[in-house]
Amino acid sequence: MKPCSRRQALTTGSLLSALAAIGLLLPTGARAADGAFAAKTVDDALKLLDAQPAASSDITLSAPDIAENGAVVQVGVQSRLPKTQEIHILVEKNANPLTASYTLPEGTDGFVQMRVKMGQTSPLWVLVKADGRWYSASKETKVTLGGCGG
Amino acid sequence: MSTPTRMRAITKDGVTDIRLLMTHPMDSGLRKDASGQLVPQRYITDVKATLNGRTVLAAKWSVAVSQDPFLWFRVRGAKAGDKLSVEWHDSTGDSRSDDLVLA
Question: Does A120 have pLDDT greater than 60?
Fold first, then answer.
């Protein structure tokens, strides 16, 4: 069990920023979310996404209370907010919190389930953009064995 | 060469549950192999799912998505015979596209 060291975190961070910078220059990936992936804190990611979310009880974030293996943590999001357009999943204490961004066109439910890696015990955040406004929900998951490498 | 994405779509009461299992190492760049060398970073950055050519889900991912990514989402109004296509691109420029005709 080895937590991600500061050095590793910084290396990954700078690599990601470099990748994000490249991504921004390409016409295909020119979206706000690209830069937000390089953010090192949830607050920075929110700024880059231009989101000022309000806590909402219409979002269900399902994740285990205790994850034995941080490399595979099942995370599910169900948004009952009408016109859910985007869902973003963030792991607060990972080197780069923003983990996944989903764009859901009309006809697709406000629902996604996936598996993420968590370096250590951390709150999970979900950001939902519905009808042009931002909402959030969070839940803390305890991690027994980190899934960041090492 | 990459392995096909496993896809499953089940329609019930007008809602189609789509479950995908992609095969990809999702290397964080922090892991070491048996000889102690760092395994270079390599992860899926973009996923797009289309139904008869219409985008039903677009995803952007970071390294923190687990190995062999699993993704489950729901669409409305899909019919038998519709073609679901799933395409991913990774940070090394590799990509893959797979199709499934809805039953």
Answer: yes
